[in-house]
Write a structure and sequence with these properties.
The complex is a heterodimer of chains A (113) and B (254).
Chain A (H helix, E strand, L loop, with lengths): L28 H10 L17 H10 L2 H6 L13 H26 L1
Chain B lengths: L3 E9 L19 E5 L2 E9 H4 L1 H7 L3 H19 L4 E10 L2 H10 L1 H11 L2 E10 L17 H35 L3 E5 L4 H4 L5 E10 L3 H14 L3 E9 L11
The chains are: A mainly alpha (113), B alpha+beta (254).
């Protein structure tokens, strides 16, 4: 194993850069926001900005990235009922729709007789 | 005259400030390193009109601004993490001056040392598992009216059961992938699956894993991911990295 990739002359590389695989560097905005807004060290600075207090646009982003536990802590649970976010609820919704369709089919059959 | 503050990107140990000389800071600033008791905070000046309490409250609602700052923040953290053990700070950690920065390094010294011990020589890899898009059942050619109620219900039930079976087997695959990767890394975390509206992908994300991996084992880890992807053609496995150890450099226990 060769770790002597001499990337920058001024500094010793702290880790050996991934060699052969030309894997795309992480640049996906979803991944970056997830990490810089929801992960990492939290130390209160002098500028008091509680990221959890920001509303409107970022609250939407935050809802998409915060952990389930945190969302519950914040009293946010609409995602439980959002068919896009919850497979089980989607199944229930499907079942409800199917039942309604079935009732309609029965009713129209009855009135036709 | 506009007031400035010190924006903190990351805390590192044994960081040569020279290596950051060519890395762009936020807001066209210059990166500097504030050292205190063996810890090095990577900072740059920011305008408090833009990064003060009021400014941030306004700007964080502005997605283009947020994206630029998030990418800029990440780029500095990336540059630092490839040079020294690094604990990334959450976006928008700002002190008024270097004394404020040193105060934080003092107050959090031992906890930060612990975090740096945990991540030293290690990087984070992101592995996601997506469900393969399900083929649409070709049922449209039989007009519903011609089907008896019982047959209709039966067909619907069979479809639902088939889908549930598919979904639960995909979830089992995701669990298996996570277990295999966690066994080959220093630590593994399951993050909340990202919403399709954020990923822009139609496939459902079944697993959003973060793994702390020894730096020299990065290639072997990526190979393992490739093997798992080949072994499970029924799901899409995506590997990104190495990342700075965002998901493992937390003061709370991960």
């Amino acid at each position: 194993m060769s770790q002597s990739h001499d990337a920058t002359p001024s500094a010793r590389p702290y880790y050996s850069p991934p060699s052969a695989s030309p894997r795309p560097q992480p640049a996906n905005l979803a991944d970056i926001l997830e990490r810089v807004l929801d992960k990492g060290i939290i130390i209160a600075g002098d500028i008091k900005v509680n990221l959890l207090d920001i509303e409107l646009l970022t609250i939407k982003i935050r809802l998409l990235i915060v952990s389930v536990d945190k969302a519950k802590e914040m009293g946010i649970d609409w995602w439980r009922n959002d068919p896009m976010l919850n497979g089980q609820e989607r199944t229930l919704a499907d079942e409800n729709r199917e039942l309604r369709e079935r009732i309609e089919a029965l009713e129209s059959k009855e009135s036709g007789d | 005259m506009t007031e400035t503050g010190r924006y903190l990107y990351a805390i590192a140990r044994g960081l040569d400030p020279q290596v950051l000389a060519d890395v762009p800071a936020l807001a066209g600033g210059q990166l500097e390193v504030v050292e205190h008791r063996g810890l090095a905070a990577v900072v740059s000046d920011v305008d408090l009109e833009e990064y003060g309490e009021e400014g941030l409250r306004r700007n964080l609602e502005n997605l283009p601004w947020l994206e630029e700052v998030a990418r800029g923040h990440d780029a500095v953290v990336q540059a630092t993490a490839t040079r020294a053990p690094t604990a990334p700070l959450r976006l928008a950690t700002i002190c008024l001056d270097d004394d404020g920065v040193r105060e934080r390094l003092d107050a959090w010294h031992d906890a930060l040392e612990e975090v740096l011990d945990r991540v030293e020589g290690r990087m984070e890899w992101s592995v996601k598992v997506f469900a393969r898009p399900r083929p649409v059942p070709a049922a449209a050619d039989s007009p519903p009216a011609a089907v008896s109620g019982a047959a209709y219900l039966q067909r619907k039930k069979a479809e639902t059961q088939a889908r549930q079976a598919e979904e639960s087997s995909a979830v089992a695959v995701a669990d298996e992938v996570h277990a295999s990767l966690a066994a080959r890394s220093v630590a593994g975390r399951r993050l909340a699956p990202q919403d399709p509206r954020l990923t822009g992908r139609a496939e459902q994300m079944l697993h959003n894993g973060a793994y702390l991996v020894e730096a020299e084992e990065g290639d072997a880890f990526a190979t393992l991911v490739d093997e798992l992807a080949t072994a499970h053609p029924d799901v899409v496995v995506e590997c990104r990295g190495p990342w700075p150890p965002y998901s493992f450099a937390t003061l709370e226990q991960p």
